[in-house]
Amino acid sequence: MVKKIVRGLFPLFLVFIIGCSGKSDVTLTAVSSDWNIEIFYKVVEGKYREIPSIQYIGKKPIGPEVKLDIIYKNNSATTNTLSGHNYLGMQMKVLVTRSEVDNWKDVEKVKITWSSDEGNLEETLIPKVKQSDNSGQNSTPL
């Protein structure tokens, strides 16, 4: 009798475990003619740890400070500031700010603010889920 109960409950237990562990790592990307942004969300203890990266792909020199805001649906934001760099030809730079969020789907947009010879500039981008390359080759940043 006990064996039948255990056998009956085992599939329910598996469904519960699989359903509860449904979170998986994801990367969002946002690209413009000047910027390549990637935000990696790593699952840590049931939450998503946000690891942002930025790359300047524009052609014109820019000022000494760049600000990246990750803006969420509830109008809160995580702000990252880079300063004192020559951004031309910059490789993808992982930023030090780490936030933990309940759901990466709460990210609404990213805003990049910087200065150049043309004055202060700002771009607002909508990040999308980065698609993995099924061909077995490494995917190139967009």
User: Alpha-carbon distance between the termini?
Assistant: 59 Å
**Low-pLDDT ranges:** 14-19, 134-142
**Biggest sheet overview:** 6 strands, antiparallel
**C-alpha-based Rg, rounded:** 20 Å
| Strand coverage percent | over 45%
The total strand number stands at 10
Name the overall outline: elongated
Oligomer: single chain
Q: Structural class per helix/strand content?
A: mainly beta
- Estimate the mean pLDDT confidence: 82
**Percent in helix:** 10-25%
Order of helices and strands: HEEEEEEEEEE
Q: How many DSSP helices?
A: 1
Description:
It is a single chain. The chain is built from 1 helix and 10 strands; from the N terminus they run αββββββββββ. A hairpin with a 4-residue loop joins strand 4 and strand 5 (77-83). It is mainly beta. The radius of gyration is 20 Å and the shape is elongated. Strands 1, 2, 3, 6, 7 and 10 form a 6-stranded antiparallel sheet that branches.
Describe this protein with a few key phrases.
13% helix, mainly beta, 142 residues, four-stranded antiparallel beta sheet, 1 helix, 48% strand
Topology:
Blueprint: H1 2-20, E1 26-31, E2 35-44, E3 47-56, E4 62-72, E5 77-83, E6 93-94, E7 99-101, E8 107-116, E9 119-125, E10 128-129
Antiparallel strand pairs: 1-2, 1-10, 2-3, 3-6, 3-7, 4-5, 4-8, 8-9
